[in-house]
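Record type: monomer structure entry
Structure origin: computed from sequence
Chain ID: A
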Amino acid sequence: MFDGTKIRNLRLAQKLSLKELAEKSGVSTSMISQIERKNTDPTLTTLYKLCKGLDVSISSLLENDEDSTHIIRKDERKTLNFPQSHSSYQLLTPITEGTIEMIMIHLEPGQTDQQLVEHSGEECGYILQGKMTVILADKEYVLSEGDSIRFKSTIPHRFFNHSTETTISIWAMTGRVL
């Protein structure tokens, strides 16, 4: 279960009511309340919207005071799971400083959340295993093991796994992404 108390703490620190965050993010007040009370897990799209409304990165939700400023050990990676999108994101870079984030995405087959997202920055990705469909606005690109891609994150986009095996990819992103 996602820890919605971080969303609540960020909202309160910015002196935002549920209604104000709903207006800024495009997520209903009832959904925000359910997430904050840990009654439901947000989809990746919902989490992106909330972070955009709070002007924070998703990785800031994983932050704690013990984070290293330079090195992330393999067995100390922070992982954010999104059951409804059949994906997990492992943070490969420290959260505490810098403008670029690297993540490893594990995409399982069967993703159902198809809403495109957009945010500031740029992204580039490399497929380590499997196949991934990347939608950029109205175009679809199928990437296979060894393929890479780069695009501006302001282009509405989404990643899908339409294959029957897990897809693993590494991404570098700038701006407020994860």
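Annotation 1: The mean pLDDT is 84.
Annotation 2: The longest helix spans residues 44-54.
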